[in-house]
Amino acid sequence: MKHLKALIGLLLIVSLFVAGCTNEQDRVAQKGQTGTNKPSSQENQAQASTSDEIPAKLKKPIKVAAVTQFSIGTFSSQYISGVKEQVEKFGGQVQIYNADNDLAKMASYVETAINQKVDGILIDHGKADALAPSVRKAVAAGIPVVAFDSDLDIPGVTVIDQDDYTLAWNSLRSLAQDINGKGNIVYIWVAGFTPMERRNVIYEAFKKRYPNIKEIARFGNASSNTALDTQSQMEALLKKYPKKGDIAAVFAPWDEFAKGATRAIQQAGRTEIKVYGIDLSDEDLQLMQAQNSPWTVTTATDPADVGRLQVRFLYQKIAGEPTPQVYSIQPHLVDKRTLPKQTISMKDLGKYVPGWGQSQAGTSPWMKKLIEANKK
């Protein structure tokens, strides 16, 4: 009975924590609104304009600076492709600044964008303690800013994320169910990144929720060869635990970690060990669908769709329209057991995962006309 009461208490705390995050987002988003419209949902908050006339500020080519913390892996490359695609459709120009995981360099790039008097700035990842002073300068200079997966909290700056708490919980819940709430697992994780630290909050609660699931190893680092480094570390761990049943599953809350773990497990012939990840790209999807792949589940958003959404919010800001200060993108659970036997791409995923890559947030009626006006 004591354990039951403790479990109920833990679940209540986690529920209140996640609910608090959601309520805070709603409150901040409403605070960030201007004008008289009072949208009834987060999705409606991002659709403020009712006019299909192209705003005057957008009748000239828009210059956008996209400042990224890193460009590791296929998720990042597909995200950047989404940014470029949407800016180009709107007739604008985008300059990508990759900071190679150097936060000081990232802040410097924001300063460069301000000095170049760009029309808008996109920020991908980064930490507030490094970026806030530069971002405040941009806001003071009248340059709209939209950030992705960042802990920035500056009035007027829209911050979008992938709802990292839901991402982590969906994959972890699947893991627990598949191993019947009991077994040894490996956790691949690295600190220093806002989304990773949010996912870790749920992981720590998960361990208390499932006391018979034991973490026997934890490792991980972010580098230019993260997947390869992870593969080497996982190979060493498999030698340490050579028997079937020593390891039930791996939780890898970044697709680069999941790729490395999956390849190590495949090469060792230990496919009884299942991998549960976060994030998805075309490369990841092919790896999941490979015969006898241990990568079983991932929870993700479409990275290209994230990039397109971020650009739409930025153009709304440039047009003078209201945007939410905080917006969470709805993630989707992708289970390889529900996918067809033939290999599919991300473009086909919507046929099997309802709602995949179909976000209509951040749209205004004039966007269609702007795209038409800039068709080449």
UniProtKB/TrEMBL annotation:
Residues 1-19 form the signal peptide. Its main location: other. It is found in: Cell envelope. GO terms for cellular component: outer membrane-bounded periplasmic space. Residues 31-52 have a biased composition (Polar residues). GO terms for molecular function: carbohydrate binding. Coiled coil: none annotated. SUPFAM superfamilies: Periplasmic binding protein-like I. Residues 70-321 form the Periplasmic binding protein domain. Residues 29-52 are annotated as: Disordered. InterPro entries: Bact_Solute-Bind_Prot2, Peripla_BP_I, SBP_2_dom. Keywords: Signal, Sugar transport, Transport. Belongs to the bacterial solute-binding protein 2 family. This is Simple sugar transport system substrate-binding protein. It comes from Thermoflavimicrobium dichotomicum. The lineage of its organism: Bacteria, Bacillati, Bacillota, Bacilli, Bacillales.
